[in-house]
Amino acid sequence: MTENEPKPPVPKIYPEGCVFNSIDDIKDKHVTVMGLGLNGGGEASVRFLLKHGAYVLATDMKTAEDLKTTIDSIAGDDSLDKSRLTYVLGEHRIEDFENADCVIKNPGVKYDGNKYLAAAKNIETDISLFLHFTKAPIIAVTGSKGKSSTVSAIYYGLKEAGFEAFLGGNITVSPLTFLEKTNAKTPVVLELSSWQLADLHGRKALKPFITVITKIIPDHQNFYHSMLAYVADKKLIYADQTKKDYAIFDFDADAAADGGTLIDNWGNIFAREAKSKILRYSRKPLPKGIDGVWFAKNLDGKCRFNGKEETILKDLIVPGFHMRINVLNAALVLKIMGVEAKKIIEILGKWNGIEHRLEYFHEWNGYKFYNDSAATVPEAAALASQSFGFPVTLLTGGTDKGLDLSPLSETLANSSSIKPNAIYMLKGSATDKLVPLFKERGIETKGIFDDLTSMLTTLKEDLSKIECDPKTKKAVVFSPGATSFGMFKNEFDRGNQFKEKVREIFK
């Protein structure tokens, strides 16, 4: 840390190790799972603990009706001893935390100021349990954008290259679901959010063989209120690596993304701190003596590893330069894992992306529809608008999460940018802030809509009136650049509802 870098707030430090000495030690323990949820993490914890003989109390502020899908899934599994399971829903009770041998914490719940967590004797998460018990080599990925695409491309590449690999973490698959299938020869790819990393402070549990930190930009500032605190949690991903491990960091500048901390390159800070072998990624050729990956003028992905330079990435199916960077990092991981360059090019050239991230899923009258619902920050929506090389119809907007929204308006107004054919906006607090920014820059929109149905119905009416050359490339891109609170359960539910409505309306 330089003298210009203010010190981040002191995080919650957990005891080193795990409250359970072994998996067998779980038997007959009383464990409270805080946050049953609908995304799999809470359910996976309940299943894992019941399977290993614990008495489990699952508590959630949501009601049984809200959580019906998860509850029905557990109830329908005859292999679980449900006599050891208790639900406390629609509320939390302090005694359920005080009397438990251990509380399994939901990563989205803040520890600071939470009286229930403060009352717990011991706190673990599904990630901390997995890391404590697995012997698998870990490939861990964090960052502000591109995490899910990067881990998915790595996982796909490993499987295609013949590895018995697993994928979990923030990508909505709890690693507890496959813990007992892992061993020292099964690489596990983990997407880790800043919240999941924060829950690992002090535990000495995360020691990845390979770490990747994708581009850092301001995110979750409604949760952190400090860029330094946000990045401090990201740093946990490499904190306990050794000289035998690898870390892949950004080489390019982070202009206007430092939160006012006088930092112009987070990757340089990470590289100074990490004890592992450092590799960098860049849009431009890396200087001699620095190993990593970059793009040639023809956008081929180049690699310098152990002094050898070669091409490891060529043509891709997925659109967008930002996606190409994610896949290039995946290619570097495969190179570290011993896959030959020619094989990497062949494998990743067939990868067709992942759900909710510039996902092509429907065509109507020559218009291709893309679901980019996982774009929850304005920078991601801005990139999506520029990813196709031609003007698109952009569907955007949603709920604010304390971010600077100007990157989207500035990109759409920039004279060198690709201007959208039209912009349709979904209502929400972020949209309320974007509208005046758009007006200031002379950006016109087709309106603000209360729901997907009204937006898509109007869109169909408008597109039906347009006569286009059949050879003209046409795309409709749903890239909110905001969160999904209020109208949807989460960004994945938002994306699924969008796809369902498009297929229903654009028959």
Give your account of this protein's structure:
- The structure is a single chain.
- By secondary structure, this protein is of the alpha/beta class.
- The chain has three domains: 95 residues, 3-Layer(aba) Sandwich (Rossmann fold); 221 residues, 3-Layer(aba) Sandwich (UDP-N-acetylmuramoyl-L-alanine:D-glutamate ligase); 147 residues, Protein-Tyrosine Phosphatase, Chain A, CATH 3.90.190.
- Helix content is 31%, strand content 18%.
- The chain contains 17 helices and 20 strands.
- A nine-stranded mixed beta sheet has the order 7-8-6-9-10-11-12-13-14, with helices on both faces. A six-stranded mixed beta sheet has the order 15-16-20-17-18-19, sandwiched between helices. Strands 3-2-1-4-5 form a five-stranded parallel beta sheet.
- Strand 10, helix 10 and strand 11 form a beta-alpha-beta unit.
- The longest helix has 16 residues.
- The model has no long low-confidence stretch (mean pLDDT 92).
Jot down its keywords:
Protein-Tyrosine Phosphatase, Chain A, 31% helix, UDP-N-acetylmuramoyl-L-alanine:D-glutamate ligase, 3 domains, six-stranded mixed beta sheet, 507 residues, alpha/beta, nine-stranded mixed beta sheet
